[in-house]
Q: What sequence folds into this?
């Protein structure tokens, strides 16, 4: 009979919380706010981590750029043929791409050129290559790009301004969803010929060359061979890019750490206050309960229910509010702190990442600690003689 | 039977404010007896009740209640002993003011996790017995002194204990309510309960239901 949930004890615990409604409400509100802040920050960082990881995963293994005077210049397409001669190289594709600043919207688009029959170095581009009509002056744009163009009344085509000031009209032939949110919000794909025209790039030149290596362990060796072959080039491996992205994130995570510390500090002030003792009324009540036949474990069970109800309610409220804040309202203020305007685009939407570990971490940082802080002083009081507590 | 053997109780032992509440007391109370402990404030009457209820432990000596050595019971066993055997009516009632009368009355049953029906039956019985049905849902803080006392007595009887201990039960009541309380005691006595009343109210000393008046003076039986 004792194994089933004691509804009367639970009811007593709920009543007890309502009896101290202002205190209970204040604690629940502060706990909810802390859990909300902490969970929001975790959600944002998880989403950014996920996005960065996806970006890194979709990056080519080696990128070769021509450098002169420390600046990036277009590279000869013939370099790709020389690289293909290196043992271990699976493919070398000359990329034609550039950034196009769309002044009306204040955003940069990445305009990428592809050829119908070349091997695509990205999964999303392989899909685009099938849908893009290479015979027409058309392009396939990311979902976010389409949205921006629509907002600026470019529903069926877009006019690119060429370096000589003339316009090049390109029809919007389709919309694609990129491997990452960043890609979807930023990339325009069209034929290499059109890209060359927009950026005034000669036929024999490319922006850079992406190299695929059959054996991942040989990436470093192949990279050093390319460097030897073309000393004026910059050879960037996937690992270099990963470190670069990671550094950006590590810098941002300093802000996360600051918010984390502030949240924990506030939480532990509440805990300290709870754990440091009971009011004389609370003590007397425990004494009375013991005097009328409650055991120490009955008192502790009731206090456990009280602590659990308030902390679990705060946990649920905090997490639900954080979910709404981050994924429905797009984390106003906080997202800008973490994503900034330079590293990622303003239209960047945090992808939904469900991470049980995060939820478990916040749970274990809040609920059990709060329950312990509720139970410990009650235990100290309940183990004294009832007579002593009531006096 | 309740037996207090060579009981000494000292509060704040080895401290500057040390108080000897009871000094080598011996007392036996038979089953079904109604005993009045008579004495001035601070004479040690309440301490005797606390020791019998195992709410506190003697500094030396032994308290035996029925087959239980009340003074030697570990904490949780002492709680079980109180719940099953003792109904305590405290001087200031010790009710929880922000709970309703019925919620206060069923408090001793809460940890038992009984069926709703069983709790309701017991509640109904004591509400009727102590004429407090009409106030069952009211908050205790809104009840009069006499009503609060009836709630306290109902709570003390919800488990149908064999022993009723009442500490200065009429201290906060006028004469009419005190007489009403005595009527309730008569009913309890009729039910065969052992009753110990600690009081200095002269109303109790010549009652025909009282079997014995035990006088206590400065921690020693007179």
A:
């Amino acid at each position: 009979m004792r194994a089933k949930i004691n509804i009367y004890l639970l009811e007593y615990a709920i009543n007890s919380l309502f009896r101290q409604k202002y205190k209970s409400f204040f604690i629940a509100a502060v706990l909810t706010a802390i859990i909300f802040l902490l969970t929001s920050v975790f959600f944002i960082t998880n989403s950014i981590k996920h996005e960065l990881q996806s970006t890194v995963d979709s990056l080519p293994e080696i990128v070769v750029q021509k450098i002169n005077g420390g600046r990036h210049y277009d590279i000869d397409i013939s370099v790709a043929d020389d690289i293909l001669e290196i043992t271990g190289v699976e493919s070398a594709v000359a990329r034609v791409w550039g950034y196009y600043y769309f002044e009306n919207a204040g955003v940069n688009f990445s305009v990428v050129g592809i050829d119908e029959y070349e091997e695509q170095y990205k999964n999303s581009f392989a899909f685009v290559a099938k849908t893009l009509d290479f015979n027409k002056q058309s392009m396939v744009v990311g979902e976010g790009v389409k949205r921006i163009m629509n907002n600026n009344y470019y529903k069926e085509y877009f006019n690119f301004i060429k370096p000589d000031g003339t316009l090049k009209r390109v029809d919007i032939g389709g919309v694609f969803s990129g491997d990452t949110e960043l890609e979807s919000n930023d990339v325009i794909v069209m034929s290499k010929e059109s890209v060359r025209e927009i950026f005034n790039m000669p036929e024999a030149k490319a922006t850079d060359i992406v190299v695929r290596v059959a054996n991942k362990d040989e990436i470093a060796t192949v990279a050093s061979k390319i460097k030897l072959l073309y000393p004026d080039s910059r050879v960037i491996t996937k690992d270099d890019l990963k470190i670069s992205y990671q550094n950006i994130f590590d810098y941002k995570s300093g802000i996360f750490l600051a918010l984390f510390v502030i949240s924990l500090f506030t939480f532990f002030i509440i805990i300290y206050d709870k754990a440091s003792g009971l009011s004389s009324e609370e003590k007397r009540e425990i004494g009375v309960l013991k005097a009328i036949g409650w055991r120490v474990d009955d008192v502790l069970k009731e206090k456990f229910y009280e602590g659990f109800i308030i902390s679990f309610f705060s946990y649920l409220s905090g997490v639900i509010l954080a979910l709404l804040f981050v994924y429905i309202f797009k984390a106003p203020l906080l997202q800008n702190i973490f994503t900034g305007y330079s590293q990622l685009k303003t239209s960047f939407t945090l992808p939904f990442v469900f991470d049980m570990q995060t939820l478990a971490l916040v749970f274990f940082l809040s609920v059990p600690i709060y329950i312990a802080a509720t139970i410990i002083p009650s235990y100290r009081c309940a183990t004294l003689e009832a007579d002593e507590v009531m006096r | 039977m309740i037996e207090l053997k060579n009981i000494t109780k000292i509060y704040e032992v080895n401290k500057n404010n040390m108080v000897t509440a009871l000094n080598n007391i011996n007392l036996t109370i038979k089953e079904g007896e109604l005993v009045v402990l008579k004495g001035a404030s601070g004479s040690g009457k309440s301490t005797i009740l606390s020791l019998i209820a195992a709410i506190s432990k003697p500094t030396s000596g032994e308290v035996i209640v029925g087959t239980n050595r009340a003074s030697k019971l570990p904490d949780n066993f002492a709680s079980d002993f109180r719940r099953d055997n003792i109904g305590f009516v405290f001087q200031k009632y010790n009710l929880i003011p922000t709970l309703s009368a019925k919620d206060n009355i069923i408090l001793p049953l809460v940890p038992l996790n009984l069926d709703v029906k069983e709790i309701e039956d017991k509640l109904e019985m004591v509400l009727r017995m102590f004429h407090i049905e009409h106030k069952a849902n009211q908050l205790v803080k809104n009840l009069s002194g006499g009503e609060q006392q009836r709630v306290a007595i109902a709570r003390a009887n919800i488990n149908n204990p064999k022993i009723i201990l009442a500490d200065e039960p009429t201290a906060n009541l006028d004469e009419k309510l005190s007489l009403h309380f005595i009527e309730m005691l008569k009913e309890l006595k009729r039910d065969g309960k052992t009753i110990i009343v600690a009081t200095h109210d002269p109303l109790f000393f010549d009652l025909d239901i009282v079997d014995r008046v035990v006088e206590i003076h400065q921690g020693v039986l007179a």
Remarks:
- Chain A has a mean pLDDT of 85.
- Chain A touches chain B at residues 1-2, 4, 6-9, 12, 15, 19, 284-285, 288-298, 301, 383, 385-388, 390 (CB under 8 Å).
